[in-house]
Amino acid sequence: MKTNRILCGDTVYDITPAYRDGARAMRAGIPYNLGNPFRSGSRKHDDWNIGHTHESTGEHLRSDCDVIETSDNGLFFEEKPAILATGEQA
């Protein structure tokens, strides 16, 4: 099974189990500074933080798809297109 990936800004992130846990923690209202169960400085800790942060900024709803709940199969999620004040895509 291949890990899904998401583009945010100029960086591509793997949607790991820890990343998903961070996003789900944000959805459950668990504070960023209190909910991370992983050892500080570990990859899982960083992934959890990134997932939580991206959820808080609305990065996980793309193309009418919930990126966090999409099964791993190597999907790549592009950034949402920018919407101009006129309602048109940039």
Structural description of this entry:
32% of the residues lie in helices and 16% in strands. The chain is of the alpha+beta class. It has one domain. It is globular and about 30 Å long. The relative contact order is 0.23.
Primary descriptors:
two-stranded antiparallel ribbon; alpha+beta; about 15% strand; globular; three-stranded mixed beta sheet; about 90 residues
TL;DR?
With 90 residues, the chain is an alpha+beta fold. 32% of the residues lie in helices and 16% in strands.
List the helices and strands and how they pair.
Blueprint: E1 5-8, E2 11-14, H1 17-27, H2 32-35, H3 43-56, E3 61-62, E4 65-66, E5 76-77
Parallel strand pairs: 1-5
Antiparallel strand pairs: 1-2, 3-4
| Widest β-sheet, arrangement of strands | 2-1-5
Q: Which stretches are low in confidence, meaning pLDDT under 50 for 5 or more residues running?
A: none
Beta-strand percentage range: 15-25%
Q: Class by helix and strand content?
A: alpha+beta
Q: What is the rounded Rg?
A: 14 Å
Written as H for each helix and E for each strand, in order along the chain, the element string is EEHHHEEE
Query: What is the mean predicted local confidence, pLDDT?
Result: 89
By DSSP (H or I, 4+ residues per run), the number of helices equals: 3
